[in-house]
Design goal:
about 850 residues, mainly beta, Maltoporin, Chain A, 22-stranded antiparallel β-barrel, five-stranded mixed β-sheet
C-alpha cells in the first residue's frame, strides 16, 4: 500500500498547495452530463478532424462525457462498453489480450501479427495494439466511438471503426481535482490532476492514478486471488500558447500494470481433462462455474509497461489551420501462465512482446467561411516489433499422456521400447513428453505505413452539403521467424517410424499383437515384421474388423493404437516441424496499398438533419505470428490478405427542446475479413470470403423535467458469412470436420458460408436515468441507474453452441451528493448490481481435446468515491 499512501498524500498536497480562491473548469462542481441534460448543440466532436456538433456531423458516432465516466465508475475502455451498446470489449487469458469490436467486427486479440480492426486514438495518437490502450483513463474531456470504416481520415486499421479519446488540456487558471475510491475486494483507487500557468504563455497539467484491488477469482490450488488490479500511471502535459493563432502541446505518459490475470474455468470436462483428475490432480468443477474458483498449479503473472511522448502543433496560418502530431511509444507486455488450467503441472506458457512505434501526422484544414471547405493531410508510421512465446511441458505431462494411452506401460512405453531396440538413445519411459520439452516461438517484424488523405465539403444551398473524401494507404511488413521445436513426439512421423519394420511381429507385446490379429491384421502380408505405421492412423486401412474385448473399443478401419492426437505441434505438416522464414520460397515481406473514398450528402431540415453516405475502408494484410504459421499450402499460409470494407448508411439526427434522437441504418460488408480463431494451441489466421451485417443504431437523450435526464442507446445487428470456406475446423462439428480414417486427422477447414458469425449479439441496449434534487442551499443530490443488455449469442465458433451461448443483463447505479461551495462530491456506486452471471468468452481447452473453458464476467462490485475539486 506504500504506492497508495504516496499518491494520496501527493493528491492532498496538490489541493492545499494551490490558491483556494482559484476558479477554473476544474474547480467547478461535477459537470452535468452533456449527453443527458444539455441540448445536442453543446456536444462537440472531432470525428471528422474538425470541431462540429454531434448533430451536424454526418456519421454515426456515440459520445461519452466526463460526467458519465465519473458517475458510472468507468476506469478503462473495458468499462466503456456498458454505455456504448455497439462497442464490445473483451479481456481474455492475459491483461494484454483484449479485443475491440464495433458493429460486430473486430479482431487482433492474441496474435501480434494482426492489428485491430478498431483503431484507438488518444489525443490524436494512434495506439497500434489493443494492449497499448488499456491503462486507466486519464482526465477525460470526452470519448467518441465512431462506427463504421474511418479509413479516409484515420488510416488503414479502422475498418470497423475508431475510438477517439480526447483529454482535458492544460489551463491558464489554477485548478485541479483529487479523488479516492474504496470498495469491495479491498478496492483502493486514487486519482489526481492539477493544472495552472507556468508563465503567461505556458500552462501545465500533471495527472496520476493508482488502482489496487484484490482479485474476484480464487486459485483453489495456491490460495491466491486472481484478476486483481495493480496499476499506476502518471501523465505530464505542457501547453505553449503565445497567441490565439499558435499552440504547442507536449504530452508524456508512463503506465505500469502488474496483475495476476486472468481467471479461466472449465465449462466442460472431456475425457482428457477427466484423465487428469484420475491422476489425483485437481480439475475444475463445471457445476460451480460462477463460484469463480480456478484451478492453476501456478498463479498467472502479467507485466505491461507503456510509455510515450507526443507533440501537437496547431497553427492558424490565415487561410487554413495547420496541425502536426508527432509521437513515439514504447510498449512491453509479458505474461506467464499455466495453460492447462488444472492442478497438474502439464504445460506452461511464457509470452512477451516489445513494440516501438513512431507516428507522424500533418494536416491542413481550411478556415474559409464560404460554401467550400477542405482538409488535406498525411500520416506516417514506423514500427518495430519483437514477440515470442515459450510453451514447455511440466513434470506431470508424461503421467497425463500415459493416462490417455494405457498407463505407465502403455502405448508410449511400447513405442519407446520398440525404438530403443533400434536406437538406444530412445529411453523407454522418459523419452517423450519430458519436462522442458515444447516449443519456442520467436518473431520479429518491421512495419512501415503511410497514407495521404483529403476531404472537401461543398454547401450547394444553406441546407444541402455534399462531402467527398479520398485516401491512399500503403503498408509494408517485413517479418522473420525463429521457431524451435523440441517436442520430440511432435517431430515423429507416426506413419513411418524408422526401424519398426525390422522388428519381428512376434516381438510385439501380446496386448498389441492379439488386438491386431483380432481386428483382422495379416502379419504375413507385411513380411512378418512390425508395421512402421503401427502407431499411426493410416494403419486403420489394414484393420477391417471392429475392436472388441480384449481389444480397445474401436470402429472397423480404425487403429486403436494411433497416437496422432498427441502431436500438439505441427503434427499435420509434412515435415513435422516449423519452416522458418524468410527462406528460398518466402521473402518474409508483405506489401499492400489501397485507395479508399467516402461520399456523403447531408440535408438540414431544421429540427432534423438527414444524411446518406457511402464509404470504403481498408485494413492491411497480416502475418500469423503463432505456432500455426505455416508455409503456403492449399490456402494455409503465413499471412492473411487485407480487409476491404464498404458501408451504405443513412441517418437522421433530430434535436428538440431537452434532448435529441439519432438514428443510423446501415449495411456493412467486409471482403477478406481476417478471422483469427484460437484453436487450442495457436491461431488460425485466414480470410473469410465476405462477411456482412445489416442493422441500425439509435442514440437518444431527453430531459422531460429539470430534475430528470434519460438516455438510451440501441443496436440491432443481423450478420452473416456470405462466403467463408476456410473457417478453422473443430471437433464438435463432425459433419463438416470428419476425421480422415487414413490419417486420423480432421480437415484444416470447414465451410461456414451462410452461417451467422459468432460473437455478434442481435440486440444490444444501454439506457440510463438520472434524477437530480436540491437538498438545501448549495447541496445537490443525484441518483443514476444504468441498464446494459445484450441478447444471447454464440460467443465463438470453436466452442459448441450449447456451451458458448450467452447474453448479459447488467445494472449499474450511483448515488451522489455534491456540496457546491466546498467543491466536494461524495458518491456511492455499484457495477453489476444484481450480480448477473455470464461468460464473456469460451475456447477449446489447451491440449485437452474435447474439453472447453470460459471466462466468467466480473461479479458485483461496489464502493464509495470522494471527489474534491479546486
Amino acid at each position: 500500500m506504500k504506492k497508495y499512501e504516496l499518491l494520496a498524500a501527493s493528491a492532498l498536497a496538490l489541493i492545499y498547495a494551490v490558491p483556494a480562491t482559484a476558479q477554473t473548469a476544474d474547480s467547478a462542481p461535477a459537470a452535468q452530463d452533456t449527453q443527458t441534460t444539455d441540448t445536442s448543440d453543446d456536444i462537440i466532436v472531432t470525428a471528422t478532424k474538425r470541431e462540429q456538433t454531434l448533430q451536424d456531423v454526418p456519421i454515426s458516432v456515440a459520445v461519452t462525457s466526463s460526467a458519465t465516466i465519473e458517475r458510472s465508475q468507468i476506469r478503462d475502455l473495458i468499462d466503456l462498453q456498458s454505455v456504448v451498446p455497439s462497442l464490445k470489449v473483451s479481456q481474455f487469458n492475459a491483461v494484454g489480450q483484449t479485443n475491440f469490436i464495433i458493429r460486430g467486427f473486430g479482431n487482433g486479440n492474441g496474435n501480434d501479427g494482426i492489428e485491430s480492426s478498431v483503431g484507438v486514438f488518444i489525443d490524436g495518437v494512434y495506439r497500434t495494439r489493443t494492449a497499448a490502450a488499456l491503462d486507466d483513463l486519464p482526465e477525460i474531456e470526452r470519448i467518441e466511438v465512431l462506427r463504421g470504416p474511418q479509413s479516409t481520415l484515420f488510416g488503414k486499421n479502422v475498418s470497423a471503426g475508431a475510438i477517439n479519446i480526447v483529454t482535458k488540456r492544460p489551463s491558464f487558471d489554477w485548478g485541479g481535482k483529487a479523488e479516492i475510491s474504496v470498495g469491495n475486494y479491498s478496492l483502493m483507487q486514487t486519482k489526481a490532476t492539477v493544472t495552472g500557468p507556468l508563465t503567461d504563455t505556458i500552462a501545465f497539467r500533471l495527472s496520476g492514478s493508482l488502482n489496487e484491488r484484490d482479485g474476484y477469482f480464487k486459485n483453489l490450488t495456491t490460495g491466491s486471488d486472481i484478476n486483481n488490479r495493480n496499476r499506476w500511471s502518471v501523465r505530464g502535459d505542457i501547453l505553449f500558447e503565445p497567441s490565439s493563432d499558435f499552440s504547442l502541446r507536449i504530452i508524456g505518459d508512463y503506465n505500469l500494470i502488474k496483475e495476476r490475470c486472468c481467471g479461466v474455468v472449465s465449462i466442460f470436462n472431456g475425457p482428457a481433462t477427466l484423465a487428469i483428475g484420475s491422476l489425483g490432480r485437481a480439475i475444475s468443477d463445471t457445476t460451480k462455474t460462477f463460484d469463480r474458483g480456478v484451478i492453476f498449479n501456478t498463479d498467472p503473472a502479467n507485466r505491461l509497461v507503456g510509455k510515450g511522448v507526443s507533440g501537437q502543433i496547431d497553427w492558424n496560418v490565415g487561410f487554413a489551420k495547420l496541425t502536426s502530431i508527432t509521437a513515439y511509444r514504447d510498449q512491453v507486455n509479458q505474461s506467464n501462465q499455466d495453460i492447462d488450467f488444472t492442478g497438474a503441472d502439464i504445460s506452461s506458457n511464457k509470452t512477451s512482446n516489445h513494440i516501438k512505434t513512431f507516428t507522424q501526422e500533418i494536416r491542413l484544414a481550411s478556415n474559409t467561411d464560404g460554401p467550400f471547405s477542405w482538409l488535406i493531410g498525411g500520416f506516417y508510421q514506423d514500427e518495430k516489433l519483437q514477440t515470442g512465446r515459450d510453451i514447455r511441458f511440466g513434470k506431470d505431462a508424461r503421467a497425463y499422456l500415459n493416462a490417455l494411452t494405457g498407463g505407465t506401460n502403455g502405448l508410449l512405453f511400447a513405442l519407446e521400447s520398440l525404438q530403443h531396440a533400434i536406437n538406444p538413445a530412445v529411453t523407454p519411459g522418459s523419452y517423450y513428453f519430458a519436462p522442458g520439452q515444447g516449443l519456442a516461438d520467436n518473431y520479429s517484424m518491421k512495419q512501415r505505413s503511410y497514407s495521404i488523405f483529403g476531404q472537401v465539403d461543398y454547401k450547394i444551398t444553406d441546407r444541402l452539403t455534399l462531402t467527398g473524401g479520398l485516401a491512399y494507404l500503403n503498408d509494408r511488413k517485413a517479418a522473420r521467424s525463429n521457431v524451435v521445436l523440441n517436442d520430440r513426439f511432435s517431430q515423429l512421423n507416426l506413419e513411418n517410424v524408422p526401424g519398426l519394420n525390422f522388428i519381428p511381429f512376434a516381438a510385439l507385446p501380446a496386448s498389441i499383437a492379439g488386438c491386431l490379429l483380432q481386428k483382422g491384421y495379416n502379419p504375413a502380408a507385411n513380411g512378418g515384421v512390425v508395421p512402421n505405421n503401427l502407431f499411426g492412423a493410416s494403419l486403420g486401412g489394414s484393420l477391417p474388423g471392429p475392436g472388441s474385448a480384449p481389444c480397445p473399443a474401436s470402429r472397423a478401419g480404425t487403429n486403436p493404437f494411433g497416437l496422432n492426437a498427441l502431436q500438439f505441434f505441427y503434427g499435420n505438416t509434412p515435415n513435422h516441424g516449423p519452416v522458418n522464414f524468410p527462406n528460398a520460397n518466402e521473402s518474409g515481406v508483405l506489401t499492400g496499398d489501397k485507395v479508399t473514398y467516402a461520399a456523403r450528402a447531408a440535408y438540414d431540415l431544421g429540427a432534423i438533419n438527414a444524411y446518406v453516405s457511402y464509404s470504403t475502408g481498408w485494413k492491411a494484410g497480416a502475418y500469423n505470428l503463432s505456432s500455426d504459421s505455416r508455409p503456403p499450402l492449399n490456402g494455409v499460409g503465413r499471412s492473411a490478405d487485407p480487409e476491404s470494407v464498404t458501408v451504405y448508411e443513412a441517418g437522421l439526427k433530430a434535436k428538440f427542446r431537452g434532448g435529441y434522437f439519432n438514428l443510423a441504418v446501415f449495411k456493412q460488408s467486409i471482403k477478406g475479413f481476417q478471422s483469427n480463431a484460437f484453436t487450442g494451441l495457436g491461431y488460425s489466421l485466414v480470410n473469410a470470403g465476405k462477411e456482412s451485417v445489416r442493422g441500425f443504431e439509435i442514440d437518444a437523450a431527453y430531459s422531460p423535467a429539470p430534475f430528470l435526464a434519460l438516455t438510451g442507446g440501441l443496436t440491432y445487428l443481423d450478420p452473416k458469412y456470405d462466403s467463408f470456406a476456410g473457417a478453422a475446423c473443430v471437433n464438435y462439428d463432425t459433419v463438416r470436420c470428419p476425421v480422415n480414417p487414413a490419417t486420423g486427422l480432421r480437415p484444416n477447414f470447414r465451410d461456414l458460408t451462410g452461417d451467422r458469425p459468432a460473437g455478434i449479439p442481435k440486440w444490444s441496449l444501454s439506457t440510463s436515468a438520472t434524477v437530480n434534487h436540491d437538498l438545501a442551499e448549495g447541496i445537490n443530490a443525484y441518483l443514476r441507474g444504468e441498464y446494459d443488455y445484450t441478447s444471447k449469442t454464440q460467443l465463438t465458433e470453436t466452442t459448441p453452441p450449447g456451451l458458448s451461448t450467452w447474453g448479459s443483463n447488467n445494472v449499474n447505479a450511483s448515488l451522489g451528493v455534491t456540496f457546491v461551495n466546498a467543491k466536494l462530491e461524495v458518491m456511492a456506486w455499484a457495477r453489476n448490481l444484481t450480480n448477473n452471471n455470464s461468460l464473456i468468452g469460451t475456447f477449446p481447452t489447451v491440449a485437452q481435446d474435447g474439453s472447453y473453458s470460459g471466462y466468467p464476467n466480473q461479479p458485483r462490485t461496489y464502493g464509495m468515491t470522494i471527489r474534491k475539486s479546486f
